[in-house]
Specification:
By secondary structure, the protein is α/β, with parallel strands linked by helices. The protein has eight helices and twelve strands.
C-alpha cells in the first residue's frame, strides 16, 4: 500500500485536508489539487493509481476531467466525491468512466472501504496478458521471448517486453511518449528528456522483422500505435 499514490482533486480545503489526512494515515501517498486547472494537469500527467474527483469546482469540472481521462488514460481508476447525489449525475459519472460515486457528506471509514474496493477491482481487471499473437508468431511476455513459425526466436529485455505488451494491449490507439514514460518507465515526462523510447521501439522493430514499420507505427509528433490489422 505504501507504494500506492492517490490523487485528490477537491476545492473545499477542509474536505481535501480531511481526505488527504485519512489516506496518508492509512498508508497511501497523496497528490492534491485545489481546483479544476491543477486537477486536470495532475490527472493527465502525474503518476497515481486512483483519483478522487470532485465535480463542481473552479476551472474544468470533474466531468470535464473525467472525459479527458477517458481519452488520454483509458482505464484510469476514479471515484467521484460530490454533493450532487441526483440520479442523473450518478449515472453520468459512472457511464463516463468513474468506478464509484460517493455522495457528500460521507464517513471517512466508508471512503477508505470504497478506495480499497476500487483498487482491488482495478488491479484485477488490469492483469496483463502473458502471451499475445504477433505477425508470424507469438510474444511470450513472461519468458520475454518472441517465437516465430519459421523457428526464429528473439529474446526481449524487460523494458522491451513491457513496452511491447503495453502497445499490444492498446490496439489501434495512439500511445504517446509521455504515457509510455509515465506507465512503463515510471518517469515524469515533464522532467525527462530522453530518446530511450525511440531506441527501444527501434530494437523491437528489428526483433519483430518490422522493416516497413507496419506493425509498430510511428504517429509523427504524438507517439506509437500497434497495428492490429497485421494479425488478420
Amino acid at each position: 500500500m505504501a507504494e500506492t499514490t492517490i490523487l485528490v482533486v477537491e476545492d473545499d480545503p477542509a474536505v481535501r485536508r480531511g481526505v488527504v489526512d485519512v489516506l496518508e494515515y492509512a498508508g497511501y501517498r497523496t497528490l492534491e489539487a485545489a481546483d479544476g486547472h491543477a486537477g486536470m494537469d495532475l490527472a493527465l500527467r502525474a503518476n497515481y493509481r486512483l483519483a478522487l474527483l470532485d465535480l463542481v469546482m473552479p476551472g474544468p469540472s470533474g466531468f470535464e476531467i473525467l472525459e479527458a481521462l477517458r481519452k488520454k488514460r483509458p482505464g484510469q481508476a476514479v471515484i467521484i466525491l460530490s454533493a450532487r447525489g441526483e440520479e442523473n449525475d450518478r449515472v453520468r459519472g459512472l457511464t463516463t468512466g468513474a468506478d464509484d460515486y460517493v455522495v457528500k457528506p460521507f464517513s471517512m471509514k466508508e471512503l477508505l472501504a470504497r478506495v480499497d474496493a476500487v483498487l482491488r477491482r482495478t488491479c484485477e481487471r488490469a492483469a496483463p496478458a502473458s502471451e499475445s499473437a504477433i505477425p508470424g508468431g507469438t510474444a511470450d511476455f513472461t519468458a520475454r521471448r518472441l517465437t516465430f513459425a519459421d523457428g526464429r526466436c528473439e529474446e526481449l529485455s524487460e523494458r522491451e517486453a513491457d513496452l511491447l505488451r503495453y502497445l499490444v494491449e492498446s490496439p489501434g490507439r495512439i500511445v504517446t511518449r509521455e504515457e509510455i514514460l509515465r506507465q512503463i518507465w515510471g518517469l515524469d515526462p515533464d522532467r525527462t528528456e530522453t530518446r530511450t523510447i525511440d531506441m527501444h521501439v527501434m530494437h523491437l522493430r528489428t526483433k519483430l522483422g518490422d522493416k516497413d514499420q507496419t506493425v509498430l507505427v510511428t504517429v509523427r509528433g504524438k507517439g506509437y500505435r500497434f497495428n492490429a490489422e497485421v494479425l488478420s
